[in-house]
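[job 0412] stage=complex_fold ligand=zinc ion status=START
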Amino acid sequence: MRWTLPFFIAIFFLLATGRAAEWTLYKVGGRDFVTLENLSEFYNLGSVRRANNDFTMAIGQRSLRGTANSVEFYINGLKFNLSYPITEVDGKLAVSRMDLTKVIEPVLRPSKIKGAEKVDTIILDAGHGGHDRGALSPYGCEADFTLDVVRRTRALLMQAGFKVVLTRSNDTFISLNERTRIANRYTNALFISVHFNSGGAGTGLETYTLAPRGVPSMMADGPRVSDFDQCAGNVNDAQNMALATATHASLVVRSRMFDRGIKRARFVVIRDIAIPGVLIEGGFLSNLDDAKLVAMPAYRQQMASCILQATMNYRRAVGSQIGEVAGRKSDGPRVEIPPFRTSPGITSGEPEVVIPTAPATN
Ligand SMILES: [Zn+2]
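[job 0412] stage=complex_fold status=DONE, emitting C-alpha coordinates
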Protein backbone atom coordinates (compact mmCIF):
# COMPACT_ATOMS: atom_id res chain seq x y z
CA MET A 1 0.00 0.00 0.00
CA ARG A 2 1.40 3.38 -1.01
CA TRP A 3 0.93 6.91 0.29
CA THR A 4 -1.00 8.34 -2.65
CA LEU A 5 -2.81 11.53 -1.73
CA PRO A 6 -0.88 14.17 0.20
CA PHE A 7 -3.82 15.63 2.06
CA PHE A 8 -5.78 15.03 5.18
CA ILE A 9 -9.18 15.92 6.47
CA ALA A 10 -9.53 17.13 10.02
CA ILE A 11 -12.80 16.44 11.76
CA PHE A 12 -13.71 18.12 15.02
CA PHE A 13 -16.39 17.03 17.38
CA LEU A 14 -17.18 19.48 20.13
CA LEU A 15 -18.30 17.57 23.16
CA ALA A 16 -20.77 18.58 25.82
CA THR A 17 -17.84 18.96 28.19
CA GLY A 18 -16.38 21.60 25.91
CA ARG A 19 -13.37 19.47 25.01
CA ALA A 20 -12.65 18.99 21.34
CA ALA A 21 -12.03 15.41 20.21
CA GLU A 22 -10.30 15.44 16.90
CA TRP A 23 -9.75 12.68 14.39
CA THR A 24 -7.40 13.46 11.54
CA LEU A 25 -8.02 11.19 8.56
CA TYR A 26 -5.27 10.36 6.07
CA LYS A 27 -6.05 8.85 2.67
CA VAL A 28 -3.82 5.92 1.75
CA GLY A 29 -4.68 3.96 -1.38
CA GLY A 30 -8.22 5.36 -1.28
CA ARG A 31 -8.77 4.24 2.31
CA ASP A 32 -8.98 6.37 5.48
CA PHE A 33 -6.36 5.94 8.20
CA VAL A 34 -5.74 7.55 11.61
CA THR A 35 -2.32 7.74 13.25
CA LEU A 36 -1.43 5.78 16.38
CA GLU A 37 -0.76 9.09 18.17
CA ASN A 38 -4.32 10.11 17.38
CA LEU A 39 -5.59 6.77 18.73
CA SER A 40 -3.52 7.05 21.86
CA GLU A 41 -4.73 10.57 22.58
CA PHE A 42 -8.37 9.64 22.01
CA TYR A 43 -8.33 6.51 24.18
CA ASN A 44 -5.93 8.01 26.72
CA LEU A 45 -3.25 5.34 26.28
CA GLY A 46 -0.16 7.45 26.92
CA SER A 47 2.72 7.89 24.52
CA VAL A 48 3.31 5.64 21.53
CA ARG A 49 6.58 3.77 22.01
CA ARG A 50 8.16 2.60 18.80
CA ALA A 51 11.12 0.28 18.24
CA ASN A 52 11.82 -0.13 14.53
CA ASN A 53 8.60 -1.57 13.10
CA ASP A 54 7.01 -2.50 16.44
CA PHE A 55 4.92 -0.21 18.60
CA THR A 56 3.13 -0.29 21.94
CA MET A 57 0.98 2.09 23.92
CA ALA A 58 -0.27 1.21 27.36
CA ILE A 59 -1.70 2.60 30.54
CA GLY A 60 -2.47 0.13 33.31
CA GLN A 61 -4.03 -3.03 31.87
CA ARG A 62 -5.13 -1.33 28.66
CA SER A 63 -2.73 -1.66 25.78
CA LEU A 64 -2.41 -1.67 22.01
CA ARG A 65 0.53 -3.38 20.31
CA GLY A 66 1.41 -4.16 16.70
CA THR A 67 3.84 -4.00 13.81
CA ALA A 68 4.13 -1.87 10.68
CA ASN A 69 2.82 -3.53 7.50
CA SER A 70 1.18 -6.29 9.55
CA VAL A 71 -2.45 -7.13 10.33
CA GLU A 72 -1.52 -8.76 13.64
CA PHE A 73 -2.69 -6.44 16.39
CA TYR A 74 -2.93 -6.96 20.16
CA ILE A 75 -5.52 -5.26 22.34
CA ASN A 76 -4.97 -5.85 26.06
CA GLY A 77 -2.75 -8.78 25.10
CA LEU A 78 -5.37 -10.50 22.94
CA LYS A 79 -4.60 -11.14 19.27
CA PHE A 80 -6.75 -9.63 16.53
CA ASN A 81 -6.25 -9.86 12.77
CA LEU A 82 -6.96 -6.41 11.34
CA SER A 83 -8.71 -6.08 7.98
CA TYR A 84 -5.91 -3.84 6.66
CA PRO A 85 -2.22 -3.69 7.67
CA ILE A 86 -0.79 -0.96 9.90
CA THR A 87 0.53 1.59 7.41
CA GLU A 88 3.14 4.36 7.46
CA VAL A 89 1.87 7.90 6.81
CA ASP A 90 4.20 10.91 6.93
CA GLY A 91 6.68 8.96 9.07
CA LYS A 92 3.95 7.88 11.49
CA LEU A 93 2.18 4.54 11.80
CA ALA A 94 -1.55 4.51 11.16
CA VAL A 95 -4.51 2.15 11.48
CA SER A 96 -7.44 2.02 9.05
CA ARG A 97 -10.66 3.77 9.95
CA MET A 98 -12.46 0.45 9.27
CA ASP A 99 -10.39 -1.28 11.95
CA LEU A 100 -10.79 1.69 14.30
CA THR A 101 -14.59 1.55 14.10
CA LYS A 102 -15.08 -2.22 13.71
CA VAL A 103 -12.38 -3.59 16.03
CA ILE A 104 -10.73 -1.09 18.36
CA GLU A 105 -13.79 0.94 19.38
CA PRO A 106 -16.16 -1.97 20.26
CA VAL A 107 -13.35 -3.78 22.09
CA LEU A 108 -12.13 -0.81 24.13
CA ARG A 109 -15.57 0.67 24.79
CA PRO A 110 -18.21 -2.09 24.57
CA SER A 111 -20.53 -0.14 26.84
CA LYS A 112 -20.88 2.44 24.03
CA ILE A 113 -22.27 -0.12 21.56
CA LYS A 114 -25.59 1.13 20.23
CA GLY A 115 -28.61 -1.14 20.37
CA ALA A 116 -27.04 -4.00 22.31
CA GLU A 117 -29.97 -6.10 23.49
CA LYS A 118 -30.31 -7.68 26.88
CA VAL A 119 -29.29 -11.33 26.64
CA ASP A 120 -31.22 -14.16 28.28
CA THR A 121 -30.98 -16.89 25.62
CA ILE A 122 -27.97 -18.66 24.11
CA ILE A 123 -28.25 -20.61 20.84
CA LEU A 124 -25.55 -23.28 20.78
CA ASP A 125 -24.65 -24.69 17.37
CA ALA A 126 -22.72 -27.98 17.26
CA GLY A 127 -20.95 -28.04 13.89
CA HIS A 128 -21.58 -30.91 11.41
CA GLY A 129 -23.55 -34.10 12.36
CA GLY A 130 -25.20 -37.09 10.68
CA HIS A 131 -23.45 -38.01 7.42
CA ASP A 132 -21.28 -34.89 7.77
CA ARG A 133 -18.59 -36.01 10.22
CA GLY A 134 -16.45 -32.85 9.83
CA ALA A 135 -12.72 -33.09 10.56
CA LEU A 136 -11.27 -36.42 11.70
CA SER A 137 -8.53 -37.33 14.17
CA PRO A 138 -7.26 -40.74 15.35
CA TYR A 139 -9.40 -40.20 18.46
CA GLY A 140 -12.74 -39.26 16.95
CA CYS A 141 -14.59 -36.89 14.67
CA GLU A 142 -15.50 -33.22 14.82
CA ALA A 143 -19.28 -33.86 14.75
CA ASP A 144 -19.08 -35.88 17.99
CA PHE A 145 -16.70 -33.49 19.76
CA THR A 146 -18.77 -30.40 18.94
CA LEU A 147 -21.98 -32.06 20.18
CA ASP A 148 -20.27 -33.02 23.43
CA VAL A 149 -18.99 -29.45 24.00
CA VAL A 150 -22.44 -28.03 23.31
CA ARG A 151 -24.16 -30.43 25.73
CA ARG A 152 -21.66 -29.59 28.47
CA THR A 153 -22.12 -25.88 27.78
CA ARG A 154 -25.91 -26.17 27.91
CA ALA A 155 -25.72 -27.63 31.42
CA LEU A 156 -23.52 -24.79 32.69
CA LEU A 157 -25.59 -22.05 31.03
CA MET A 158 -28.85 -23.44 32.42
CA GLN A 159 -27.35 -23.53 35.92
CA ALA A 160 -26.47 -19.86 35.46
CA GLY A 161 -30.07 -19.04 34.54
CA PHE A 162 -29.85 -18.77 30.75
CA LYS A 163 -32.41 -20.21 28.37
CA VAL A 164 -30.54 -22.49 25.98
CA VAL A 165 -31.45 -23.67 22.48
CA LEU A 166 -29.45 -26.28 20.56
CA THR A 167 -29.53 -26.33 16.76
CA ARG A 168 -28.96 -30.08 17.10
CA SER A 169 -29.02 -32.16 20.27
CA ASN A 170 -28.13 -35.50 18.69
CA ASP A 171 -26.13 -36.91 15.80
CA THR A 172 -28.28 -35.66 12.93
CA PHE A 173 -27.54 -33.61 9.84
CA ILE A 174 -28.89 -30.04 9.98
CA SER A 175 -28.33 -27.74 6.99
CA LEU A 176 -26.58 -24.41 7.50
CA ASN A 177 -29.74 -22.55 6.46
CA GLU A 178 -31.82 -24.47 8.99
CA ARG A 179 -29.33 -23.52 11.71
CA THR A 180 -29.76 -19.83 10.89
CA ARG A 181 -33.55 -20.23 10.75
CA ILE A 182 -33.48 -21.62 14.29
CA ALA A 183 -31.30 -18.73 15.47
CA ASN A 184 -33.59 -16.17 13.85
CA ARG A 185 -36.59 -17.29 15.91
CA TYR A 186 -35.03 -15.67 18.97
CA THR A 187 -34.31 -12.18 20.22
CA ASN A 188 -32.32 -11.20 23.32
CA ALA A 189 -30.04 -14.02 22.29
CA LEU A 190 -26.47 -14.88 21.26
CA PHE A 191 -25.41 -17.52 18.72
CA ILE A 192 -22.29 -19.58 19.41
CA SER A 193 -21.15 -22.12 16.82
CA VAL A 194 -18.59 -24.74 17.91
CA HIS A 195 -16.16 -26.35 15.45
CA PHE A 196 -12.72 -27.94 15.35
CA ASN A 197 -10.16 -27.19 12.69
CA SER A 198 -8.17 -29.24 10.21
CA GLY A 199 -5.47 -28.72 7.63
CA GLY A 200 -1.80 -28.08 7.02
CA ALA A 201 0.50 -27.65 9.98
CA GLY A 202 -2.12 -25.63 11.83
CA THR A 203 -2.42 -25.62 15.61
CA GLY A 204 -4.27 -23.56 18.18
CA LEU A 205 -7.46 -21.63 18.67
CA GLU A 206 -9.18 -19.12 16.43
CA THR A 207 -12.48 -17.31 16.68
CA TYR A 208 -14.41 -16.07 13.66
CA THR A 209 -16.72 -13.12 13.48
CA LEU A 210 -18.60 -11.77 10.46
CA ALA A 211 -16.58 -9.53 8.14
CA PRO A 212 -18.02 -5.99 8.02
CA ARG A 213 -19.44 -4.83 4.69
CA GLY A 214 -16.60 -4.14 2.24
CA VAL A 215 -14.01 -6.16 4.17
CA PRO A 216 -12.62 -9.30 2.47
CA SER A 217 -13.13 -12.63 4.23
CA MET A 218 -9.85 -14.04 5.56
CA MET A 219 -10.97 -17.40 4.14
CA ALA A 220 -11.06 -16.00 0.57
CA ASP A 221 -8.13 -15.53 -1.82
CA GLY A 222 -8.81 -11.82 -2.11
CA PRO A 223 -11.52 -9.16 -2.36
CA ARG A 224 -14.80 -10.07 -4.06
CA VAL A 225 -17.68 -7.96 -5.34
CA SER A 226 -19.96 -9.79 -2.88
CA ASP A 227 -17.89 -8.33 -0.02
CA PHE A 228 -20.06 -5.24 -0.50
CA ASP A 229 -23.36 -7.06 0.05
CA GLN A 230 -25.03 -6.09 3.30
CA CYS A 231 -25.53 -9.33 5.25
CA ALA A 232 -28.14 -9.84 7.98
CA GLY A 233 -25.43 -10.17 10.60
CA ASN A 234 -23.82 -6.83 9.72
CA VAL A 235 -26.38 -4.94 11.80
CA ASN A 236 -24.51 -6.41 14.77
CA ASP A 237 -20.92 -5.67 13.68
CA ALA A 238 -20.01 -4.11 17.03
CA GLN A 239 -21.79 -6.74 19.13
CA ASN A 240 -20.20 -9.50 17.02
CA MET A 241 -16.74 -8.14 17.74
CA ALA A 242 -17.46 -7.71 21.46
CA LEU A 243 -18.75 -11.30 21.64
CA ALA A 244 -15.74 -12.62 19.69
CA THR A 245 -13.42 -10.78 22.07
CA ALA A 246 -15.10 -12.15 25.18
CA THR A 247 -15.13 -15.68 23.73
CA HIS A 248 -11.59 -15.72 22.39
CA ALA A 249 -10.12 -14.13 25.54
CA SER A 250 -11.73 -16.72 27.75
CA LEU A 251 -10.62 -19.67 25.58
CA VAL A 252 -7.05 -18.47 25.07
CA VAL A 253 -6.41 -17.54 28.69
CA ARG A 254 -7.76 -20.79 30.12
CA SER A 255 -6.49 -23.29 27.54
CA ARG A 256 -3.02 -21.81 26.99
CA MET A 257 -3.24 -23.11 23.42
CA PHE A 258 -1.58 -21.21 20.59
CA ASP A 259 -3.50 -17.98 19.91
CA ARG A 260 -4.39 -17.70 16.19
CA GLY A 261 -6.45 -14.63 16.89
CA ILE A 262 -9.88 -13.27 16.06
CA LYS A 263 -10.57 -13.48 12.32
CA ARG A 264 -13.14 -12.33 9.76
CA ALA A 265 -15.24 -14.58 7.54
CA ARG A 266 -18.69 -14.89 5.96
CA PHE A 267 -19.65 -18.38 7.07
CA VAL A 268 -23.41 -18.85 6.54
CA VAL A 269 -24.17 -19.37 10.23
CA ILE A 270 -22.62 -16.05 11.28
CA ARG A 271 -23.64 -14.22 8.08
CA ASP A 272 -27.39 -14.84 7.98
CA ILE A 273 -28.36 -14.39 11.63
CA ALA A 274 -30.01 -11.34 13.15
CA ILE A 275 -28.51 -11.83 16.62
CA PRO A 276 -24.84 -11.40 17.61
CA GLY A 277 -22.86 -14.52 16.74
CA VAL A 278 -19.44 -16.09 16.73
CA LEU A 279 -17.81 -19.29 15.42
CA ILE A 280 -15.17 -21.00 17.56
CA GLU A 281 -12.49 -23.29 16.11
CA GLY A 282 -11.34 -25.06 19.27
CA GLY A 283 -8.14 -26.70 18.01
CA PHE A 284 -6.82 -28.70 15.04
CA LEU A 285 -7.88 -32.33 14.77
CA SER A 286 -5.16 -32.69 12.11
CA ASN A 287 -2.49 -31.81 14.71
CA LEU A 288 -1.72 -34.70 17.06
CA ASP A 289 -1.15 -32.55 20.16
CA ASP A 290 -4.33 -30.55 19.61
CA ALA A 291 -6.26 -33.73 18.77
CA LYS A 292 -5.17 -35.43 22.02
CA LEU A 293 -6.33 -32.41 23.97
CA VAL A 294 -9.70 -32.23 22.19
CA ALA A 295 -10.22 -35.95 22.88
CA MET A 296 -9.96 -35.29 26.65
CA PRO A 297 -13.34 -34.71 28.34
CA ALA A 298 -11.59 -32.24 30.70
CA TYR A 299 -10.62 -30.03 27.76
CA ARG A 300 -14.16 -30.05 26.36
CA GLN A 301 -15.52 -29.24 29.82
CA GLN A 302 -13.08 -26.34 29.99
CA MET A 303 -14.34 -25.10 26.62
CA ALA A 304 -17.87 -25.23 28.01
CA SER A 305 -16.91 -23.20 31.05
CA CYS A 306 -15.08 -20.69 28.82
CA ILE A 307 -18.24 -20.22 26.74
CA LEU A 308 -20.25 -19.64 29.92
CA GLN A 309 -17.71 -17.09 31.11
CA ALA A 310 -17.70 -15.41 27.69
CA THR A 311 -21.47 -14.94 27.65
CA MET A 312 -21.36 -13.38 31.11
CA ASN A 313 -18.43 -11.13 30.23
CA TYR A 314 -20.15 -10.03 27.02
CA ARG A 315 -23.34 -9.23 28.88
CA ARG A 316 -21.49 -7.26 31.51
CA ALA A 317 -19.31 -5.47 28.97
CA VAL A 318 -22.17 -4.20 26.82
CA GLY A 319 -24.09 -3.31 29.96
CA SER A 320 -27.09 -5.53 29.25
CA GLN A 321 -27.61 -7.20 32.58
CA ILE A 322 -30.58 -9.43 33.25
CA GLY A 323 -29.97 -9.16 36.97
CA GLU A 324 -30.36 -11.81 39.60
CA VAL A 325 -31.44 -15.25 38.45
CA ALA A 326 -33.12 -17.67 40.86
CA GLY A 327 -31.82 -15.81 43.87
CA ARG A 328 -28.17 -16.06 42.88
CA LYS A 329 -25.87 -13.61 41.25
CA SER A 330 -25.86 -14.29 37.53
CA ASP A 331 -22.34 -13.09 36.80
CA GLY A 332 -19.25 -15.16 37.46
CA PRO A 333 -15.65 -14.12 38.02
CA ARG A 334 -13.98 -11.72 35.64
CA VAL A 335 -11.53 -13.04 33.06
CA GLU A 336 -7.89 -13.07 34.09
CA ILE A 337 -6.91 -10.38 31.60
CA PRO A 338 -9.89 -8.09 31.27
CA PRO A 339 -10.50 -7.67 27.53
CA PHE A 340 -12.88 -4.82 28.18
CA ARG A 341 -13.07 -1.60 30.04
CA THR A 342 -16.39 -1.97 31.72
CA SER A 343 -18.77 0.76 32.67
CA PRO A 344 -22.39 0.46 33.74
CA GLY A 345 -25.32 0.91 31.41
CA ILE A 346 -25.71 1.46 27.69
CA THR A 347 -25.29 5.11 26.87
CA SER A 348 -28.22 6.40 24.89
CA GLY A 349 -29.31 9.55 23.17
CA GLU A 350 -25.94 10.05 21.50
CA PRO A 351 -25.91 10.94 17.83
CA GLU A 352 -24.94 8.20 15.37
CA VAL A 353 -21.44 8.88 14.14
CA VAL A 354 -19.10 7.13 11.78
CA ILE A 355 -16.08 7.20 14.04
CA PRO A 356 -15.85 7.31 17.83
CA THR A 357 -16.63 10.74 19.20
CA ALA A 358 -15.79 10.95 22.87
CA PRO A 359 -12.37 10.80 24.49
CA ALA A 360 -11.88 7.87 26.83
CA THR A 361 -11.77 8.66 30.51
CA ASN A 362 -10.13 6.58 33.19
ZN1 LIG B 1 -16.26 -27.64 11.23
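Confidence is low (pLDDT under 50) at residues 1-20, 321-354.
[job 0412] exit 0
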